[in-house]
C-alpha cells in the first residue's frame, strides 16, 4: 500500500510538472495495474472495484474527531483539500463520520487541475475561500507540507507511523505526533 501510494504521488507530480491532468482515482488505478504487472499479478475487474471501494471507506485515526471538534469550538474554520475527486472525498468523510465538521471541501478536480503540492492547488483554495484568510494545511505527508509552505501557508506535519520531517527545505510550523497535539498547539498559537 505504501509503495502504491508513493508511486501514485510520484506520477501525479509528474503529470502536474508536465501540464497534464487526469482524475486521481484513474491515475491510482493505473499505478495499481502497473505495480501488479511488475509483480506478475493479474488483477480482475472485481479486484479493481474492491480496491476502489476500500479507498472510499478508509477509517479516520481515533484522535481526529475530538481534535476537529476542539478546533471548531475554538472558532477555526475547517476545510479539506484533496487530490481525490469530490465524490471520493465525500464518501471518505461520510464513512468516517467527519463530514459535518468541515465548512468547505475542495478537490483539485474542481478547480486547480493540478495535484498537490503544485502551488496552483493552494491558490485555488485561496480564490474560493478568500485570500484574506490565513491558511494552515495539516498533513501527514512532508511533500504536502512543502507545497503549502511554498504557497506561504502555515503548515503542520502530523507524524503518523512511517512519516517524518525532511531535514532540508521548507519546514512545518507545527511538528506534531497526532491531531490532539496539533489542535492544542494551534489553539495556543492563535487564541
The CATH topology of the largest domain is Rossmann fold
Largest sheet descriptor: 3 strands, parallel
Beginning-to-end CA distance, first to last residue: 39 Å
Instruction: Please state the oligomeric state of the protein chains shown.
Output: single chain
Structural class: mainly alpha
β-sheet strand percentage: 5-15%
Number of strands: 5
Q: What's the overall average pLDDT, rounded? A: 94
Side-by-side strand order of the widest sheet: 3-4-5
Instruction: Name the overall outline.
Output: globular
Count of discrete structural domains: 2
Helix content: 40-55%
Number of alpha- plus pi-helical segments: 8
Computed Rg: 17 Å
Any idea what the CATH superfamily of the largest domain is called? HAD superfamily/HAD-like
CATH class of the largest domain: Alpha Beta
SSE string, helices as H and strands as E: HHHHEHEHEHEEH
Low-confidence stretches: none
Using the 3D structure, state the CATH architecture of the largest domain: 3-Layer(aba) Sandwich
Description:
The chain is mainly alpha-helical and 191 residues long. It has two domains: 2-56, DNA polymerase, domain 1, CATH 1.10.150.240; 64-189, 3-Layer(aba) Sandwich (Rossmann fold). The protein is 50% helix and 10% strand. It contains eight helices and five strands, in the order H-H-H-H-E-H-E-H-E-H-E-E-H. The strands form two sheets. It has a three-stranded parallel β-sheet, sandwiched between helices. It has a two-stranded parallel ribbon with strand order 1-2. Strand 1, helix 5 (86-96) and strand 2 (104-107) form a beta-alpha-beta unit. Helix 1 crosses helix 2 (24-38). The protein starts with a helix and ends with a helix. 27% of the residues are buried. The mean pLDDT is 94.
